[in-house]
Structure formats: C-alpha cells, structure tokens
Amino acid sequence: MKKLTLKEIAEHIGGTFNIDAEFTEVCIDSRLCKPGCLYIAIKGENFDGHDFTASAFANGASAAIVHHDVDADGPMLRVEDTHKALMALAHWYRTTFDIPVVGLTGSVGKTTTKEMTWFVLNEKFNALKTEGNLNNNIGLPRTLLRMDEDTQAAVIEMGMSNRGEISELSLIAEPTIAIISNIGVSHMENLGSRENILKAKLEILDGLRENCPILLNGDDPYLAGAVIENHPVIYYGIDDKTCDFRAVNIEQCDESTEFDIVYDGKNQHVVIPTIGRHNVYNALAAFGTGVQLGVTAEEAVKGLAKYTPSGMRQRMKTLNGIKFIEDCYNASPDSQRAALKMLSEMKAERKIAVLGDMLELGTISEESHRNAGLLAAKAKVDVFMTYGERSLASAEKARECGVCEVYGFTDKKALADKLFETLKPGDAVLFKASRGMALEDVINDLYGRIK
C-alpha cells in the first residue's frame, strides 16, 4: 500500500493518537507483523486482538489501532471500534485511487468469475484481486488496502450470508462495474427464498458508482427479471439470443472448452482450459467486463487461456489413467447440477460421482439431497457414491432411479477403500461437497495409495 501516517488516517476515520508513525502495510495477525506494518486489534468471538498488541510491536509493527488501553508501548490510534476503523480506512483509501474496480457476487461461480476476470484485465492492467475467499467485511478491506501506486485495476469478490452484508461491502469498495453471476439457493437457510437472495445480491448496486454498468446472467430468470435503475445493464448468456454477450458453438474437449462469443456484431473464438457449461458463463462475464473496460478481444482471449482453477475448485488431475475432478471447496444444488452435467459430457470409460453433503440449505435440504440422486441418474453415472448423513438421501434416490452401483458412506476411510477397489484406468471421477465435509481427505488418501 501507499505510505500513510497515523495523523493522516485519523483525519479521515477519526480517533486520537499518541505519537505519529508511518506505515506501508496493514495486518490483523500479530504473528505476521513486521517493520512498516500497522496492526489493527480486531476483537472476534473467541479472541481479542488487543491481547496481542505487545506481541505485534515486538515483531516490528510500526503502529497500532486499538479500542481501549493495552499493555504495550508504541504509536497508537485509539478508536471507538477497531473493525469499523478497518472498514473506514479501506473505504477512504479506495477513494484515493481513480482506477476501474470490479465488484462481483453471485450464488455460484463468483470465485471462478473473479479469477477469469483478473486474468482478462491483467492483459491490459496491473490488476489486483481478492485472494482466496477473503470476501467478507474483514477480508475485503484488507484486499483494498493492498493497492499501491502500481495498481491499475482491482477485482473484488463479495460474499454474504445475510441481508445487508453485500451493501456494506459495496459501499466500502465503490465498484465502477459490477457482476452478479446467478441467483441460486446457497444461504437459503438464512434468507428463506430465492427472491430474498436476489434482493441481497442486488445490494451490490448500493455502492456501484453512478451510471456505472452491471453485468447480469441473462439466462438466470431472477436476474433477467430484475429491475435495475440508474445503471446500464449488460446481459450475458447462452440460451437467450438477446444477450449482449452470447456463447454459441460450445464444444467440450477433454480438459478444455471451445466456443464463440457473439457481441456487438462481432464473433470471437475462445478456448478456456477448463470444462463445463457453467464455466462458459463465468468466461462470458469476464470477457464482457474486459471489453467494457477497454480490453481488446484478443487480450481477453489471451487472458482466459491463462486461467487456472484456484484451490479445490474444479481442479483436474490424471493419475494412472484415471481422471480426477476435485471440486471440494463448496457445493449447492446449482453447482452440483452443473458439476454432474460436466461429468456427463466428459469422455471416459466409466463416470463416477462422489457427492458429499450440501450445508446451509435449511428446509430444502432433504429435497435437494434427494434431487442430487435424480440428477446423478440423469447424468448416467456408472457408479454413485455419497459421503455424509444428508447425502444418504441422494444414494437412496439414485437407487430408486435405476443407477446400478450406489454406495452411501458416513466414514471417509470406508469411502476411500471402496473407491480404491473400484477405480480403474479410463474412469473419470468427480468429487463434489461443501467445504465443511473436507472431502479432500478422501482424495489425498486415494492419491497416496495410487502413487
């Protein structure tokens, strides 16, 4: 970040300081503090950062923001609420940059869209992006505070669990262009209906700067029907022929997808190094955003070709002739449907689906898990395995729908044993579950045995 002083930030976010000091980085973990760092003592449910202020200074922190007296010596800014101070600091700091800021949200695909958008923009700009899943009211401010004199654009992901959260994040980031990928049933447990989820996602408009555009998935009935005022709306999609950016001639290869994007009377061929129709939507959003921000079609295509899945999202690996699709970061009915469709379109001797529980579905959990079994049958999987108590309903439904080999497990080792016994060269196996199920434990167990 740019060099700042306690005096300077006090003028913008309030508070009183004892001694002025300079800093070029913000940190909320005392263990990671170093010279030139501003330590912000955040209080969480199970910890209080104030208890570690002395440790932060011992590790080299140049200054600290605190709420109350602490047993430590050093330059400190005292504020009413350190978390609010972090958000206020990030908002003010963001306003010191006159650069494109992409704000994006959605029920499914926002991290992949974020990554693809970053690859597209990085062909023209020195672009910053949200790292990992730092998309809440602590992570987003920290991302903005990483901007420096060389930053020419930023791609900011916004997550949420309840109403009001996207609004808060958008008002901090003040995006100059926004994306909503889709309206699914993630967080149904908290919000109760897709209509409420739509309202929550549309809160991104609260901080979107005046007259700046928003890109919406035109094939999503909730987004297609949303009333947007005071902002140009750009639609992208596959099925709706009226979309501003539309994918046609989609062809899935072993580890890539090819298609043409029709827009503004033009036709651009695109190849993305991942598979699945859902990723075509993500690429459309990234391409459309790039075009809006002055990236050429050629630059956008080059950027999309560099995309690599992050973390445990749709990562593909081949061992001993077996194709593994690791998608264990998150799961919802919508993303599960997309993953099964992707598996069904793959070329393989046998197609094996391993699905774990989907969490936070509230009253639709039982229905959603049973429907997963139906979707597995429609995808014509050869072997269907599940992990978790909720997913036993998926296994039961798959049996009812005629899937020949179905196994339900609540023990990871038993699942890994059965998979190791079952898998053979030529198979393609999909792993999909909510993050809380830690299905990667089974994958790592298998990799250890196969190697």
Give a concise summary:
The protein has 451 residues and is of the alpha/beta class. Helices cover 34% and strands 23% of the residues. It contains 16 helices and 22 strands.
Layout of helices and strands:
Layout: E1 4-5, H1 6-13, E2 16-17, E3 22-23, E4 25-27, E5 37-40, H2 53-58, E6 63-66, E7 76-78, H3 82-95, E8 101-105, H4 110-121, E9 127-129, H5 139-144, E10 153-157, H6 165-173, E11 177-180, H7 188-191, H8 194-201, E12 214-217, H9 221-224, E13 233-237, E14 245-252, E15 257-263, E16 266-272, H10 277-292, H11 297-305, E17 315-319, E18 322-327, H12 333-344, E19 350-356, H13 365-378, E20 383-387, H14 392-400, E21 405-409, H15 412-422, E22 427-432, H16 440-450
Parallel strand pairs: 4-5, 5-6, 6-7, 8-10, 8-11, 9-10, 11-12, 12-13, 13-14, 18-22, 19-20, 19-22, 20-21
Antiparallel strand pairs: 1-3, 2-7, 14-15, 15-16, 17-18
